[in-house]
Amino acid sequence: MDVLDAIKSRKSVRRYLDKSIEKEKLIAVLEAGRLAPSASNRQEWRFVIVRDRETRRKLAEAADEQAFVGEAPVVIVACAETDSHTMKCEQPCYPIDVAIALDHITLAAVELELGTCWIGAFDEERVKEILGIPEEIRVVELMPLGYPSDPSIVKKERLSLDTIVKYEHW
Ligand SMILES: Cc1cc2nc3c(=O)[nH]c(=O)nc-3n(C[C@H](O)[C@H](O)[C@H](O)COP(=O)(O)O)c2cc1C
Prior knowledge:
Elements: H1 3-9, H2 23-34, E1 45-50, H3 53-62, H4 68-71, E2 74-80, H5 93-111, E3 115-116, H6 124-131, E4 138-146, H7 161-164
Antiparallel strand pairs: 1-2, 2-4, 3-4
Helix pairs in contact: 1-5, 2-5, 3-6
């Protein structure tokens, strides 16, 4: 599968098979995240891999009661060990860098017939409590990972290029 096919096939997966993920596949998707670019190569991302069923259930509760989050065999809790450094453009590095690593993970997952869903609706303090994450660490996203119960490709609802792209000036 080439990158464009992976991009076209990726979708938010909210139903997972009750099937564990092979260790090599888990390592392969994490490796895709590890190789992501980051501002000044800061690599502030840190990933907590949660496989324990009860802990996953608690995470789902902390994620606005989105039960499917706990139904995937793995939840990747994407964190940043960060000093909240900003770039010259005044954007903070860590949310951007963690997001790039996670996007690598979503695309590598597709290649390995796995599904993911970005989860931004969660209570950071509660997630930290559940996992014993230190105060100074930020939790950026949760990401369930598992075999989709429906692997079909869905049509993406997106704005047209005409709407989102301007050439040469705004
Ligand atoms: C930063 C971010 C946070 C998101 N948070 C949630 C979430 O908490 N729960 C959820 O079900 N989907 C969440 N989504 C998934 C989006 O709803 C989804 O990506 C969007 O509707 C496009 O659909 P697609 O991923 O199937 O292409 C999130 C996506 C992103 C990028």
